[in-house]
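Hello,

I think I submitted the pyridoxal-5'-phosphate job twice by accident. Can you confirm which output corresponds to this input? Input:
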Amino acid sequence: VGNARFGDAAGLTLYQRVAMRVQGLVDGGTLRPGERIPSVRRLAAQLGVSVTTVLEAYRLLEDRGVIEARPQSGYYVRPQHRTPPLPRKTEGARSATTLDVGEMILRVVNEATQPDVVCLGAAVGSLEFFPTARLNRELARAVRAEPERSLAYDAVQGHEELRVQIARRALEAGLSLTPEDLVTTPGAQSAMYLCLRAVTEPGDTVAIETPTYYGLLEILESLHLRALEIATFPETGICLDALGEALAARRVAACALVPTFGNPLGHCMPDEKKRRLVELLARHEVPLVEDDVFGDLAFGVSRPRAAKAFDGEGNVLWCSSFSKTLSPGYRIGWAAPGRYLSAVMRLKFAAQVAAPTPPQMAVARFLEGGGFDRHLRRLRRAYRELTLRMSSAIAECFPSGTRISRPAGGQVLWIELPENVDAMRLHDAALAAGVSIAPGPIFSASRRYRSFIRINVATPWSPSVERAIATLGRLVHEALDGEVTARRA
Ligand SMILES: Cc1ncc(COP(=O)(O)O)c(C=O)c1O
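Support: Only one job matched these inputs. Its output is below.
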């Protein structure tokens, strides 16, 4: 164990790093299924960490189904353990693309949320996970306590008490912001839209990771921007060498990324890489529009820092929301646009005048009342367990050759199917069978990822979810069999 590499573990706690190290030995074949792994005491002594730390790491690996404890005997790699391989590093595009994917995306998004469908398609948390009753109570109390204010236009910049609360929470992401640095918006999507509009002109090129969140592609298309897809690592995000080359070769107006628990890859860019990213972009005077909507959903103990934490020049426009942690329907998002603050405020005024007042009042009161951190801890634990469970179920039901992402936070899994499976056809067949999935091509400006799908894990585990995964597995097998038959014919 002593010689194994720690990997790209920045931002993880000690026990997670120990777990990663042991998992690395299992994945790399040093420790094989059925074999005994070092005892807790021995590993603790070898690594110079406490017995408790190793115990916690082993517990995490037990949860993940990687190892098992055998009474009186120690810990063993589970005999049936099979780690599905990760999706491969993606390739960038040679040139910027004009977008024509908006209609396809909207069709798929509308279908994903139909009633009577097991919704594995949209990255939406099931309402059971949110403190719905308390939030709605705060809404009722807020409008009762301040009826006139609740009906009035809010300030263009946004509800002040809410901005105070957001600035306090931003400390967790490594940011020292004042309420004056923030603008509230109806959701992170609106924040991204306004920020991108503030730093670009129609026809400009925006560098993005690939695959990327389809909502971002919608924004680029509607602002008549061109997308430059940059090669991306499945665990740590955009390839900085490739980005550096792209910036040196052509004019890029902005870079738009989801560096922390990206969608769909679930990757987390380590702190040091975030620092280098921010430096690289500042050197080329290219603003970074950072979508941090999943940042609070870390599976580990601490929340990773935002890329904006490394920004000394106001060059990073930080965007996020409470859609993934409190309620998507309240539409509470924000931006800290750095030196573009006044441009973003003017655009907000032009598009919205102000954000709706009552939900802002309610969320401000909710945060003031405390308990958000406790709620987040529960949510993170639930999503971590669901991610592992869903990943194991997929590994069991899908054909060999399937690759599955290993997110350290967030709520989605990115799945690379055997290459003959057409994800758009699979999407249609799954929908007919009552299951929605997000097909790969909607995550690309150039409709790549033909044989990839994204699965939302944020729905309570139940027999119907289990059946939905089994149905998907059957459809993927059938698609493969069909392909084999068609080739033989
Ligand atoms: C990466 C990313 N950004 C933004 C959004 C939209 O967030 P909001 O509902 O706050 O507008 C989503 C929703 O799925 C998302 O996945």
